[in-house]
Amino acid sequence: MTTSIAGGSSNLHYRLSFCQAKGCGQTSRISSLTFNGCLRNDISWSDGLSKLLKFQRHKFSRSTISKSWKPLGTRKASVSSCLRDSTVKYFDFAVIGSGVAGLRYALEVAKYGTVAIITKAEPHESNTNYAQGGVSAVLSPSDSVESHMQDTMVAGAYLCDEETVRVVCTEGPDRIRELIAMGAMFDHGEDGNLHLAREGGHSHRRIVHAADMTGREIERALLEAVVNDPNISVFEHHFAIDLLTSQDGPDMVCHGVDTLNTETQQVVRFISKVTLLASGGAGHIYPSTTNPQVATGDGMALAHRAQAVISNMEFVQFHPTALADEGLPIKPIIARENAFLITEAVRGDGGILYNLDWERFMPLYDERAELAPRDVVARSIDDQLKKRCEKYVLLDISHKPREKILSHFPNIAAECLQYGLDITRQPIPVVPAAHYMCGGVRAGLQGETNVQGLYVAGEVACTGLHGANRLASNSLLEALVFARRAVQPSIDHMKSSSLDLSASNWWARPVVPHSLGSNVMDDVLRKTREVRKELQAIMWKYVGIVRSTTRLETAEVEINELEAQWEKCLFEKGWEQTMVGLEACEMRNLFCCAKLVVSSALARHESRGLHYTIDFPHLEESKRLPTVILPSLVNNNTWSSRQLHKQVIF
Q1: Which residue positions in the chain have pLDDT lower than 50?
Q2: Which domains does the chain have, with CATH numbers?
Q3: The pTM is what?
Q4: Residue 140 carries which DSSP code?
Q5: Catalytically annotated residue among 198, 269, 374, 470
Q6: Secondary structure of residue 112 in the 3-state scheme
Q7: Is-catalytic flag, 374?
Q8: Which residue in 62, 176, 331, 464 has its CB near the most CB atoms, within 10 A?
């Protein structure tokens, strides 16, 4: 059911998409219901929703959870805080993800307790590491918080939460200064001040950057600090399977996470007082994405299965300018695992977009031309490609001085040059690619969710900052601000919480399918890889840059059928509900996220920001409502939508 609830500091309403039994995030578009007396300026976007839905912030029930678990004290990062069982580990804080949000949060909470950073691959393998452009912040006397807010709201098609936008734009400069104090080295101009770039959608120069490798530099500085912190343990190659949850009266409570050590094929259970999800996005629901291989929507799917509220999943940002390998003089021998990003800053520095006949086209679509927000540029390129039956367009920066190009974009220049393209003399072939999820796990102003003990930060979260479209370089900023804001409530929760050491026995253990044998596992992997490509093809064909109701409904049917076929194949080969494997669990999460996107897109009967549908091509003020998917009202019948373990019932 879709309904509207008044609330939020921006006088927004909430579009509620109830998750039904058909599949993860399915929606029945029936009627609307307005709750009276809820339009208040003093209610934040998540706080208002929490109160309306009666997600009250109760303390843990002391009658059901023992007080016997004591802090484990300081330890070296190389020493895990397990007891006798090496497959069970106890920490004050568990952080899922090692991008900027997870690392920044970990460094702060480590001052108050033990921290486990759980990362799917190597610690540096995150969306942060691939962020080229920079971090936006008001650091120039000619700029202002109000201007940054306005740019953010315009880019977000006025679906942003104004209070969230103000908080992020106001606190951003301090977060940048903290990074610099920690050793992050950003580019400076000849005057000795930080060099501030301008990107699409920004009215001022406010992008702090380290050439075109900003994310990598921030990640370097943070990882260096983490390694030197004796209270932080990093667990590489640990894939998060499911959150460990229990019901405490009306509240869902998070107690940690089950993981799969993908190197040893051992299930490791982390019991924690507080869990932060900072696991990034879900770019790999599409065939072409700038995201690294780890971005399979794990955190969003984990949270959804744990009954967390999900919001705005229809707003998938396609970066307009990913490197089009087909247009390179020398084609890559091996297909890329993820598309190579050509940063927004290239257009911000004067790059011009042309079709293959060298006709500049952006002024035909928007008066801001190449400096229009990403959704506008991506749709414009998509329109050119479809009208002209071409596979890419050209981005030309060669009219700028060679020295300036090489100093500002050394990574892009080097990448292109190895394929025979000199960007100081030749245009860059580009094409849109899935880049960023503006939706995610619904969070309040302190990163809190409706699940007790569970906080979110970074791309996995939906804080209300981005609205219907993210402004360039606001993602790292949001991650930094919310990672920091989640610290104090996390500490308070940790101090007021205690767990029984027997908590590890409350849930059934996931099982690694050694018993199936290598031949069966080879078949399972082969089928899963085929299904993954089929799902990505469906999403690109029907849920891409331009959508329609018919396409979305077709996607809904085909995804459900594909998932049913895949699960049937697995279970016929002896796979069981509690079995886990990296690629199978990733597939499970991709299905869950894809269905959340489709369900949310079907619920929005207008075109706003990143969601453009030919059936409802205009903005509708009455529909300026965040899409919200509530926890499932009944148990779901697909593997992707259920937690593997049985929930505890006290």
Answers
A1: 1-84, 633-635, 647-650
A2: 92-133+211-273+281-315+438-502 (3.50.50.60), 321-432 (3.90.700.10), 518-622 (1.20.58.100)
A3: 0.85
A4: S
A5: 374
A6: coil
A7: yes
A8: 464
